[in-house]
């Protein structure tokens, strides 16, 4: 199984393999060797590729205990996303986008990510998170690797609205934990992570949870490692465009979060920006060459 036996779904397939029919074994063999592609196939496509019928692929999902093929495909695709290497991502993207308009295809995927994010986010959870952040003594933010730009973006704007906002630099596990060493129940930590999940982000959130801090996860699934150690979770859809993670869905979610907090902090923000405008003007922060 190419070393992928640590995944519950693959373990189940391996354990049931001896009792499977010949057709189901063909599907199992293909999935275990090509999970990066199988997770994104319809039942018809999987059946054809494995050399069996569409109905055999559907029955395979039932045999594994799923309510239907869509549920099985979702579990398989989630497993695949967590395991895909950069090279596999590039190959998968080429299969999905080849012979088409790449600009249009990628843009449409981003639009779909935003739509899916907004349709699936829990509004009650969202506004509970807004209240938790605005009432916190300190707010810590951590996002590493491809999630780091999101953490920087969130830190930049929250720092204008709140008194103490700390962007945790993910330089190493020891350094990360040192930065959140004094976090407590009065504080909030926001962790941002998508497949493949960052162990540094997970360690920081686990430590913070042990310290009774309010832990907020921004991730793609409730089965995400950081969701499991968090008090609150916001789900955002992130597509994989080649080896590049699409941040359109998560970024739109962060925009909504920031706007909601800014409305609560409106009076304080007015004073802050009045002061900032004077500073920007005095020190020539912005180019005035095009001003009338």
Account of the protein in words:
With 292 residues, this protein is α/β, with parallel strands linked by helices. 59% of the residues lie in helices and 9% in strands. The chain contains 15 helices and 7 strands. A 5-stranded parallel β-sheet has the order 2-1-3-4-5, sandwiched between helices. Strands 6-7 form a two-stranded antiparallel ribbon. Strand 1, helix 10 (148-161) and strand 2 form a beta-alpha-beta unit. The longest helix has 19 residues, at 102-120.
What order do the SSEs take from the amino end to the carboxyl end, as H and E?
Answer: HHHHHHHHHEHEHEHEHEEEHH
Task: Give the oligomeric state.
Answer: single chain
Number of E-type strands: 7
Please outline the major beta sheet: 5 strands, parallel
Strand arrangement, largest sheet? 2-1-3-4-5
What percent of the residues sit in helical stretches (DSSP H or I)? 55-70%
Separate helix tally: 15
Q: For the CA atoms, what is the radius of gyration?
A: 23 Å
Mean pLDDT: 84
Query: Uncertain spans, ≥5 residues at pLDDT below 50?
Result: 1-5
Beta-strand residue percentage: 5-15%
* End-to-end CA span: 67 Å
Anisotropy-based shape: elongated
| Global structural class | alpha/beta
């Amino acid at each position: 199984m190419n070393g992928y036996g640590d995944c519950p779904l693959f373990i189940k397939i391996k354990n049931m393999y001896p009792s499977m029919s010949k057709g189901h074994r063909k599907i199992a063999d293909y999935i275990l060797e090509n999970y990066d592609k199988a997770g994104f196939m319809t039942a018809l496509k999987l059946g054809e590729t494995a050399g069996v019928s569409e109905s055999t692929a559907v029955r395979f999902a039932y045999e594994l205990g799923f309510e239907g093929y869509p549920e099985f495909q979702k579990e398989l695709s989630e497993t695949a996303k967590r395991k895909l290497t950069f090279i596999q991502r590039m190959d998968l993207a080429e299969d999905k986008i080849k012979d088409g308009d790449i600009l249009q295809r990628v843009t449409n995927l981003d639009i779909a990510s935003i739509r899916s994010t907004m349709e699936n986010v829990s509004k009650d959870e969202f506004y509970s998170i807004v209240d938790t952040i605005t009432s916190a003594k300190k707010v810590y933010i951590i996002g590493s690797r491809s999630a780091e730009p999101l953490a920087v973006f969130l830190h930049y704007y929250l720092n204008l609205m709140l008194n103490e906002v700390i962007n945790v630099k993910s330089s190493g596990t020891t350094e990360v934990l040192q930065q959140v060493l004094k976090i407590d129940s009065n504080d909030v930590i926001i962790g941002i992570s998508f497949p493949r999940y960052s162990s540094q982000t997970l360690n920081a959130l686990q430590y913070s949870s042990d310290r009774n801090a309010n832990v907020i996860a921004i991730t793609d699934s409730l089965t995400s490692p950081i969701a499991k150690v968090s008090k609150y979770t916001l789900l955002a859809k992130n597509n994989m465009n080649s080896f590049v993670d699409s941040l359109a869905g998560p970024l739109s979610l962060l925009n909504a979060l920031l706007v909601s907090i800014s409305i609560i902090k409106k009076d304080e923000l007015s004073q802050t920006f009045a002061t900032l405008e004077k500073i920007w003007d005095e020190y020539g922060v912005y180019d005035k060459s095009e001003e009338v």
